[in-house]
Amino acid sequence: MKKIKVGILGATGMVGQRFVQLLEGHPWFEVSELAASEQSAGKTYEEAVAGRWKISADIPEYARKMRVKECRPNLDCRLVFSALDAAVAGPVEEEFAKAGYVVSSNSRNHRMDADVPLLIPEVNADHLGLVKVQQKQRGWKGFIVTNPNCSTIHMVLALKPLMDRFGLEKVMVTTMQALSGAGYPGVASLDILDNVYPYIGMEEEKMQTETLKLLGQFSGSGVANAINPLKSLKPPSSPQHPIVVRTEPDRPQPKLDRNLEKGMASVVGRIRKCPVLDYKFVVLGHNTIRGAAGAAILNAELMKARGLIG
Amino acid sequence: MKKIKVGILGATGMVGQRFVQLLEGHPWFEVSELAASEQSAGKTYEEAVAGRWKISADIPEYARKMRVKECRPNLDCRLVFSALDAAVAGPVEEEFAKAGYVVSSNSRNHRMDADVPLLIPEVNADHLGLVKVQQKQRGWKGFIVTNPNCSTIHMVLALKPLMDRFGLEKVMVTTMQALSGAGYPGVASLDILDNVYPYIGMEEEKMQTETLKLLGQFSGSGVANAINPLKSLKPPSSPQHPIVVRTEPDRPQPKLDRNLEKGMASVVGRIRKCPVLDYKFVVLGHNTIRGAAGAAILNAELMKARGLIG
Amino acid sequence: MKKIKVGILGATGMVGQRFVQLLEGHPWFEVSELAASEQSAGKTYEEAVAGRWKISADIPEYARKMRVKECRPNLDCRLVFSALDAAVAGPVEEEFAKAGYVVSSNSRNHRMDADVPLLIPEVNADHLGLVKVQQKQRGWKGFIVTNPNCSTIHMVLALKPLMDRFGLEKVMVTTMQALSGAGYPGVASLDILDNVYPYIGMEEEKMQTETLKLLGQFSGSGVANAINPLKSLKPPSSPQHPIVVRTEPDRPQPKLDRNLEKGMASVVGRIRKCPVLDYKFVVLGHNTIRGAAGAAILNAELMKARGLIG
Amino acid sequence: MKKIKVGILGATGMVGQRFVQLLEGHPWFEVSELAASEQSAGKTYEEAVAGRWKISADIPEYARKMRVKECRPNLDCRLVFSALDAAVAGPVEEEFAKAGYVVSSNSRNHRMDADVPLLIPEVNADHLGLVKVQQKQRGWKGFIVTNPNCSTIHMVLALKPLMDRFGLEKVMVTTMQALSGAGYPGVASLDILDNVYPYIGMEEEKMQTETLKLLGQFSGSGVANAINPLKSLKPPSSPQHPIVVRTEPDRPQPKLDRNLEKGMASVVGRIRKCPVLDYKFVVLGHNTIRGAAGAAILNAELMKARGLIG
User: Model-level pTM?
Assistant: First the structure.
């Protein structure tokens, strides 16, 4: 199989770096373009991330000498992964989709658009049917598909099988979030060491609205919905066990469990009866892999498997 | 007023050290005895805590040269504060109460005994009526009064006025706990750095049972219940505002708020509507002051004010 | 004694906040002016530091409603403490000194000027003689006095008595620095958690040059040099023991020792023979109190005691 | 090549776990025995480390069901890796060597024995000549080889080429150590969070004496010393670049650099002139891989390559 050329928008930021790392040696995709802001454009990727590379593995060889471009829809690729900041992602992603690119976005801007799939392959692969609706309504050759907020992804992965089997009426959730979720420089060390920071702007709203969209029914006709889509299609980033259940009382722990299934699993533990609602449990997941870049890559793999990418 | 002589049981541990610190210069109490395990007995306090003093203020002068004794009911004092480990607190506290001492205990052993007050002065001062019941049933000259678990104290302080005003049907709570709650050496650094530890044995059970006892009605006759007991009596450790409400979206924060009212307040913030239950909010409090040693001292002050100590 | 009116330049930053806190209830000085950048000017101090107050004690009452002004030499005070960022401190401090203000600066800009005292009262009080030289050379009515970098202060406090008694030939030092030294937002949490950051720009150079200036002889004639200046004059912020020596093998520790003498002491420990140089030891000190705001306040107190202020 | 059967002594501790992990799929060695204290003996490895497995990767499959044995010289293997606690390592390792086993030890007990090689393959491979001396003097069929303390290894790896090229007169070193160096439970979180702990017992002494032994000349005749022993023999754990030099001013950083060369490299940076000694620089290395278990494995590989193991 000839590899599909892909680009990364916002390639120099925290999530962009994760895309660069996770796409190294990818069996279906080949990174042909790295794009970022004007300040980075023209530099090699190595120069552009000097002093800002935050992943505990060196910059992949393939990316070091690549020349960073601006985020304009003249890139030599078929699909772009968007790790753009929410301040600019909205119109840029639209330009790319209009110009015919497939956009797999981690940004929040289009997640709640009625005709844009907000996608977790194991949860609502059938929502890809919205792609045709989107293209028709907007008159685009390409299209945008998004993945949810990192907290939402792991919560919904754990809730979906419960909903399917028992139904779901009410959910209460308290999140404890990794610092990497705020990007770089993100949270100041003086704000978090010896401290708990009790508020992340718009996070509660995102978890509420995105969850309802994810768990909603797609009533239109579009791509057929396979019973077990991932198992038959085997996208390379698909975890063997999307949900890992630990029975030890002191698990899951981030230090020990976040990298299970290469960071693509949701790890559930401490399942017990709840005197208020019916059951309570803990879910843990990697926030920049399954919760961000890995999610968008898996979405792209699903689209490829479904024949949505050229 | 002549000061009341008090002793500290378990004076060398984390909570014991807090008692030693908080009782320095106390207007009503004078520490006349420090007691601990056999290994410490016979040493000066300074020697006994060498390399184990964990409070960011030097050992108070008054305690340095005091000779540590064993935890036997032959101490020269009228009241003992118990910071004993749960493994030994049960029978030791009983011996002291039997021998006529007032025992203000931070240990969990007798908290749920039906005739032992589990006390938060602002919440259920009338439960002190149980003291007479206890003395009668057990044939003791002294008695035991306990304070709740650190998490329970702060939660119940925040819930009580809501219960009084609106009633209380269901409560869901997620706790994030200070490392000091586990004592010393307590949690290994390898277990907590870059990690979240999801389980503390018996903590959920304690929060459930202690809360029900605290918020229960004392139906017997005993000490009369003043409307606003603390305000009229002014125990020296009583905070001016037991509950401080912060309206900034990013408060309370441990680093900024735990020492409000000298660590004796519960700090409430982020009050907002909840789509599942009616309201949700954050409560923060100091776990070794209001949540442990300070709670037991305030309890003792209330007992003194009510005429229960000599 | 009537209090001297003082202002704080850069009052909203990390070091500025320390000035605001440490000057609350000061027996000699009264904060009459708070000044900061254009964005803050016009707001109350409370508004100006909303979400940026980083000290674990609430904003002092006296400062909350004060109106923040711009850093122009029309402030109603006799002395200004400068906590200005190095990017702007240079010319602003000069303007104030020219206009007749005494400037006690924590900024690095004028530290190495030949006619500006770089002052640690216990080390080189006689360098205040430079004030007359400075005023004459520059034709100023006011003058600038500076305190050293936080690392230098504590190192030199420990070295001075050794130099006086034994002489000093070579010094090797490795520093481990508090995150607060970088101001706010300063170091990103992603850069420091689970990490050691090996480089602070210009820090080595500052420690080398400032130390030589501090330990140099002032050969001019000026203010007479008392043998034990601080003891006889008793500036209120002067620590009873500027150097505290700990003999326990595991001290000093920041958590246990940084607040000794209200954060104004240098704590020395682990003194032992060195097979390469003659002796080695550990010095620990509070970096935003004795290492910054407290240092500038002590300098101002010394100037007042010497009759250099009004 | 048929794999050599190896055992791990002290297999349940922190360093023991690293041996278990690093030896998974090793091309030359096959773990046939896991041994630990009496409490663990008889349990499966999985049971024995329940709640104590501290490595962020699950227990390797091969080890889970292995039955843990006591540390007695009746194990079915040719070589044992010793991760024993210093309190017991001395006599146990001697028993094994006497009984004919090759012992590659990470424990400190025999490091300074005159006839026991203290070995870093890239530094003093010729010291293996001591094996014959040891066997002759002690009348043993087997023998003991040790690796240095974690701090010493990385320091000496960086110093050796400098010594060879320029000579070495004096070295001053300040270490900042990973918490894992103290084993588990090791350092209490209350002792290290928001703190610097200034003392590790015997650490300075170890770095001084071990370094002198490592950099000393072996004058006897024994195994011939190849010029570039590792390059020609290619032990599988040998890093391609034992020393990685970083030229960025803010490197090395543990978070970014400790896993270079799979944790087997020493990473050098910030090389600069020193006004006291001639040069100064920073060295960083992984303390439980190259600094402990990985070091002992590399030593064993060198012994195999030199024909010292069956």
Answer: 0.92
